């Protein structure tokens, strides 16, 4: 990106979306990859950001220690899976993160919110570490949590991403409105690079995994490939399903008291840029295109 955009870029790694919203609010961040729920919470509080492109859908999974049965072994009934954890504690990333909202929604929907405790964590990796210490019996988070946990304890994936809120917008591309208004060409150039990256992940996951593992030295190619295999739905389009799912999240956020008002689609999204960069059909299906 630095080569193609000819600008200096400073990268910051955030454990969860809520911490990214705080950085946007302080004007410490210009662009970020973030889940829609924390962004909606931020927009409700007048943080000046807009989602200008998609990125990934269905990126939330649930893991459990090996004594717990997988969803496919319980007639694919989410109530049966969650009921195994009555009287237990499940770890989940920060309050307001997409993972936090999804699990709270399903606990409420299945009348289990008073029978299963949730612990929130600033970094998903801490969930696996506390499962190893027997502080937690399960965890909800990103696919990388599932792979990391399986390397340090006897755990497995019990609810795959497609069964935890279909089409959920696990992350989108957010720009500070200052950049959108003052430097729209930068937004277009950024999305052009983002589109190439998404294409690479979809169509050449082995190559993408090698690049990622070379940058993040603490994980190897096999680890990255395993993560991509669990949840492969990458694209930059703002599909109808993606947007509708975000609006459904907004309704749940309002129901839970995370936001005080219903936002309009135009409060959350700016479609102008992605229509120019990605005019073709969305690629969130698992087909390689």
Description:
The chain starts with a helix and ends in a 12-residue tail after the last helix. Strands 5-4-6-3-7 form a five-stranded mixed sheet, with helices on both faces. It has a three-stranded antiparallel sheet with strand order 1-8-2, with helices on both faces. By secondary structure, it is an alpha/beta fold. The model has no long low-confidence stretch (mean pLDDT 94). α5 links the parallel β4 and β5. The protein contains 14 helices and eight strands. The chain folds into two domains: 165 residues, D-Maltodextrin-Binding Protein, domain 2, CATH 3.40.190.10; 103 residues, Periplasmic binding protein-like II (D-Maltodextrin-Binding Protein, domain 2, 3-Layer(aba) Sandwich). α2 packs parallel to α3, α3 crosses α12 and α6 packs parallel to α7. It is globular.
Q: Taking strands numbered 1, 2, ... along the chain, how are they ordered across the largest sheet?
A: 5-4-6-3-7
CATH-assigned homologous superfamily of the largest domain = Periplasmic binding protein-like II
The CATH architecture of the largest domain comes to: 3-Layer(aba) Sandwich
Q: In CATH terms, what is the fold-level topology of the largest domain? A: D-Maltodextrin-Binding Protein, domain 2
Task: Give the biggest beta sheet.
Answer: 5 strands, mixed
Gross morphology: globular
Rg from alpha-carbon coordinates: 19 Å
Name of the top-level CATH class of the largest domain? Alpha Beta
Number of helices: 14
